[in-house]
Amino acid sequence: MTDAQRETAGESAATVSERLRKWRTTATLACLFVLNSLLLVPIPGVNEPHYLCKAKAFFNPDWCSQDLFLSSGNAHYVFFVIAGWLTQFLSLPTTALLGRTISYALLAVSWMSLARTLRLDRHQTIASAAMFCLSMMLGSFSGEWIIGGFESKVPSYAFSFLAVSWWLRSSEKAGCRPYVTAGICSGLSVMLHPVVGLWFCIGICLAETSRRLVPRQCHRTLRQWPVDLAVYAATAAMTSLPGLIPALSILRTPGLSATDAEKANFIQVFWRLQHHLDPSAFPGRAWTYAGIHLLLTLFAGLALFRQKRSDTSLTPISENTRKNPEAATVGLVLLLAAGLLIASVGVFIGWHNVPAQTLPDWPWRASLLKFYPFRFLDSLLPTVASLLLTMAFLKPTTKPSLGARWSRRFTPTVINVLLIAATILTAWSQRQTVPRNYPGRTYNDWKEACRWIQANSPVDSLFFTPRESVGFKWYAERAEYVCFKDCPQDTKGILEWNNRLWVIFEWANAAFADQLFDDDDLRQLHRRTGADFLITRSLGPFTTTPVYQNASWRIYSVPKDESPN
């Protein structure tokens, strides 16, 4: 074998070894994400009955056909196509498990891509992912989460992180390929979850604009900026169309007045989802969480800057900024700055010290806040903080000297083990096996009652369920007249959901006027709602004997009202 052949063989072996290390690290990240997801949120998670039942009904409209939420508009069309198809062959729990595995495997691939773009080694990559998991489990700013159950936003975030990774690489690579790849990834993100994907698209566009103004951070000139931005935006737009068009159709309100649309926005922003959309309703711990993460990010950024200045072994950066290793880090910081700008505008729009309904300009505020302006920052804070802290304080282990090899490899391994153990302990300590408002054995009794319903009631039955209903369609596979958790996302559906809540409130008050629920009250319930059965643990006393009863729940058959309307 010639020297050239030996050199080629050595390079091939090194390439294979590097790929194996990359995939081992990616597999480790996937196991970390999936494990923390299952420990923190047992199946079904709080949103899995919400989304997967709708996906099942999307493919099988006869399933729970009378349910208001399941028959409302589909904001996540592509997700319902994919997940709904799976539910035709798999049970809902199996679909959730498979969905989590695939989603968090995609998130692991995207995190690995981000780490390689920032030149993190495998120890730093695993440590940053563990810190990200910890951060996500310890809190949030606007109630956003990524480590949890299976829904469309998890793979959407994975594709958004991939888009960020390829966009960061454009500072080092010539040509339009990074912008095209980033655009495709962003388009896939929008296709799966329009809100998540579009905010990342807007953030990348803002950061790309500001990056051209920072000296020596991008080899492409300011004059090339319109072309690069157009390539990215056009690619993202074309890729996203299968999911974007159905989502935009949700915003249309044919047959409804402007007043109806404003009312629906108010219900969504300032009542049902105020914990996500109204900054005045965010608790103090949310602001503390955001402030601490911003301080940690600033601290890590300053540490990286000082290391750069004090490291005399670095060669001066040449005019060819394609070789600038700090460009990707600067781009990531600029992306976070874009998120801060968007969130600050959201706070300015939404802040109020008086009841929202007394604000003379609440309609336009609600019309903007309903697009989740804080979600972008809420996902970036733990991401950027974790990556920068790892880069600043966990040194890479590449090419150690012979004498220091053991210590330099052993210390990062110990840190990773401790961080992973911390994520597992945190997930287990915060594990919520029983939903709120279900004390003692109430939740087990709830599932037992749902199983009885599934086995003993007609499949086309309509149920009056309590306000705290959780996963009724998941366990009982029957339609609900209205469910507080399952609020539709289209204007018509939101208004009908709100109206049905008032119907049952008024019925309960009228029925309880004589402190007794009799057959006439139940007939009135059927006349107003069409419900065939009622399940409760708090209403009563009833003069009617329940058709089923356990320690917590009672189920009553609702007699039909045969009197003329």
Q: Describe the biggest sheet?
A: 5 strands, mixed
Share of helix among residues? Answer: 55-70%
Report the average pLDDT across residues.
88
Outline = globular
Beta-strand portion reads under 5%
* N→C terminal distance: 96 Å
Query: What's the SSE pattern?
Result: HHHHHHHHHHHHHHHHHEHEHHEEE
In the predicted model, the low-confidence regions spanning at least 5 consecutive residues are 312-323, 400-407
Radius of gyration: 27 Å
Count of distinct strands:
5
The number of helices is 20
Task: Describe this entry's structure for a reader.
By secondary structure, the protein is mainly alpha-helical. Helix content is 63%, strand content 3%. The chain contains 20 helices and five strands. Strands 2-1-3-5-4 form a five-stranded mixed β-sheet, with no helix packed on it. A hairpin with a 4-residue loop joins strand 4 and strand 5. Helix 1 crosses helix 4 (92-117). The longest helix is centred in the first third of the chain and has 38 residues, at 3-40. It is globular. It starts with a helix and ends in an 8-residue tail after the last strand.
Provide a compact summary of the structure.
Helix content is 63%, strand content 3%. The chain has helices at 3-40, 48-59, 77-87, 92-117, 122-138, 153-169, 177-192, 194-211, 225-251, 258-272, 274-277, 284-310, 327-350, 362-369, 375-393, 405-429, 442-456, 472-476, 491-511, 519-529; strands at residues 462-464, 479-480, 533-536, 548-549, 554-557.
